[in-house]
Amino acid sequence: MKATYQLIFNRKDKLNSQGQAPVEIRVTLNRKTAYFSTKIHIKPTEWNDKRLRVNSKHPNNIKINNYLYDKISEIEKYELNERDKGKKITIDDIRRFIRSNNGNKDSFPEWCLRMLEENQTIDKATKIKRRVLVNRLLKFNKNLQFSQIDYMFMREFDNFLHTEKTPHGKPLKQVTIHGQMKILRYFLNLAFKMQKISFVPDYKVKKGESIKEALSESELRAIENLSFPDNPMLEKTKDLFLFSSYTALRFGDITKLTKDNIRETEDGKELFLIMEKVDKPVTIPLYKLFDGKPEKIFNKYLENGDNTIFEVPANQTINRNLKIIKGLAGIQKPLSFHISRHTCLTLIGKKTGNPYLVMKIAGHSDIKTSMKYTQGVIDDELFNLL
Q1: CA angle at residue 293 from 292 to 294, to 5 degrees?
Q2: How far apart are CA 386 and CA 384, in angstroms?
Q3: Parallel, antiparallel, or unpaired: how do β-strands 53-54 and 262-264 relate?
């Protein structure tokens, strides 16, 4: 005899603190009945008792219903496959299948941590950023279950991030919170694909405006005029920062530059590479940018004989050295390696007023991002009309 399957809502006639009750799968076989959790909790007003499905009052009713019927189909497929093999199926067999198919009992934060550790395809910087999010999830609620992931969880975690502090004791900026919630959505989408959750809550977070610091031409010249003949590490830090300020290359892209990225032309050297963050090819004419200054630095390190152009220290070491350089150059702005990229794009945008040129050099995929670097030129032209 084949088993029968039915969705049951609020079997125990009891609501949780959020006014919700579970949806279960009832399996009947050989006059025996068992109930199995779907990890779905909804409100009584969101259930259609006649059609035995989530109704349209739930914002994700289609996704949840598809998830529920996929679960039933999965169990039914197991039963039919076992019967085709000539086996006699019992309720206990179905119970064992469901338990084994549910896999481990990780909480959502623990599962995120495991997924992060098992992923060998992402770069170090991305892994660090995702680890920060996972650590905050563990701090928020290390026992958070997949069944508790809903709109309310998203709102509570958003509020939690607004109470978090940076390592320096300052509140997180809105742009940082937006980035953290974006990483959370990555894990939620992954959980949905792996059928750990039935839907990804539709929760929007305001991005916020990030202030992109950049050095002026005079500040950049102050760094150019420094020399460290007795301190090779400071000299290299200065050269790397200036090279990025002339080319807009990120730290990760500079570390991976090899002689294979060089193209010799009649006028000078070009670099051709795939930018790691955007996975987009760019060509950088070293001889054209900033009167050929990046080509001179490049040639200086090209003579080391290795295939890798720059033997780059850790990013933390670079940023520590930049604090020393900042003081010697008399610069008042906060100085980190990432400012070099914004410096390059800002100076090019200010000089040309051409967002398409900025877009080409930066590898941006959206012209709106590039236009931010030319906004000052546009504003000046508008005021000149007065």
Answers
A1: 95
A2: 5
A3: unpaired
Beta bridge partners of 7: 25
CB 357 within 8 A of CB 243: no
Output the pTM of the full model.
0.54
Contacts of 91 (CB under 8 A, 6+ apart): 3, 27, 29, 30, 32, 33, 34
Q: Which H or E element spans position 18?
A: none
The arrangement of strands across the sheet holding 262-264 comes to: 262-264, 269-275, 280-285
Return the closest-CA partner of residue 215 out of 361, 346, 371, 358: 346
Q: What percent of the chain has pLDDT over 90?
A: 41
Backbone angles phi, psi at 97, to 5 degrees: -65, -45
User: Residue 273: helix, strand or coil by DSSP?
Assistant: strand
pLDDT tops 80 at residue 211 = no
What is d(CA 71, CA 195) in angstroms, rounded to the nearest whole number?
Answer: 9
- At 271, is the secondary structure helix, strand, or coil? strand
Helix (H, G, I), strand (E, B) or coil at 242: helix
* Distance between CA atoms of residues 171 and 168, nearest Å: 9
Q: Which helix (H) or strand (E) holds 264?
A: strand 262-264
Distance of CA 52 to the CA centre of its chain: 38
Half-sphere exposure of 351 (CA within 13 A, CB side): 12
Degrees, nearest 5: CA angle 245-248-285: 100
Q: How many CA atoms are closer than 13 Å to the CA of 179, on its beta-carbon side?
A: 13
> Residue 120 is which amino acid?
Q
Sorted by sequence, the CB contacts under 8 Å of residue 356 that are 6+ apart come out as: 367, 370
pLDDT tens-place string over residues 106-135: 789 999 999 998 888 887 878 899 999 999
Domains and CATH numbers, the chain: 4-101 (no CATH), 108-193 (1.10.150), 217-384 (1.10.443.10)
The two tokens of residue 372 are 């931010």
Beta bridge partners of residue 171, listed in sequence order: 165
DSSP string, 27-93: EEETTEEEEEEEEEEE-GGGEETTTTEE-TTSTTHHHHHHHHHHHHHHHHHHHHHHHHTTPPP-HHH
